[in-house]
# Entry
Amino acid sequence: MLPGIRIIATGGCLPEKVVTNDDLSKIVDTSDEWITKRTGIHERRRCVTETHLDLAAAAARQALERAGIDRAQLGVCLVTTVAGDTITPSTACMLQKVLDLPEDAACFDLNAACAGFPYGLRVTEGLLTEDRPYGLIVSCEVLTRLTDYTDRSTCVLFGDGAGAVVVQQSPDAPEICAVLGSRGDNQALYIDGAPGAGAPYIHMQGQPVFRFAVDAMPRCSLAVLEKAGVTMDRVDWVVMHQANERIIDHVIRKMELPPEKVYKNIARYGNMSSACIPVALNELYEAGRLRSGMKVLCVGFGGGLTWGGCLIEIGGIS
Ligand code: UT7
# Structure
């Protein structure tokens, strides 16, 4: 059996500027009532002065300081994102510079859209070695750069933020039993990329994505539990991608999950793509609700279309 990984520290960073539903109702034809009822979102954060690298570096610094590790033992610095400051260099390469990480650590960005964090954990698990047992995973998104503020059907949903974790490979850590997948679809949810293809905005057909989500999230979660040979009563937290509170509640009902085990913060941050899950983990840590030995089911879905889930243990946090 391969050695698994545990999360030994978390970090996070959110831009200061808060954008409320009422703020948005002044620029598009929407209302606090519509947004709250259809999505559960009350407010989100927006970068004004902060860059993508600023957010990623702050979240990473916090996680590394809390982990208290020797950075020379870091084997991987992986950033999950769809929205870096530059296509190249990657944000991960710039983190190598600003955080003074070892030059022989693998540094790269990974784009699996909102499912990026479970993808990032699984890739990191595969890359760590006995002599380089630590990995840094930072999920950072500045989606407001890619948001069309004339399109009320998307602009109310997205926000900016970063979450980070330090993981440690260990022979006694269980494999994370990740389940990752994709179904190529360039219509339901996409961001233009090629030069000349138009403004790089998020385009989404809400209802097909909603239907995909309420099918993919329970399917992926159950597959992770089956692979791990673990039943829900042994899971301490379920942290899902925060795209719509109605999607989360649908999954709770479909899987008959105990609601008190399901963490939600969508009301305060909206959809921060791959950053949602680690920002939630960091909030749990800061509230003293994440302790060593706990098992967390992380599950996300997003553009691609992608899905990803895993069951990861917490270690080194008392
Ligand atoms: O992380 C990426 C994954 N993304 C998602 O998971 C998103 C999944 N989809 C959703 O969360 C929902 O589909 C939305 C929140 C995007 C939309 O909610 P909905 O209940 O599916 O609304 P709808 O698209 O069916 O639109 C209903 C009505 C329409 O008006 P008519 O045609 O009924 O007159 C829309 O034009 O609501 C209108 N509408 C709005 N009204 C006020 C759409 N956006 C807004 C708005 N404010 N912001």
Remarks:
- The two ends are 27 Å apart (CA to CA).
- The first strand starts at residue 4 and ends at 13.
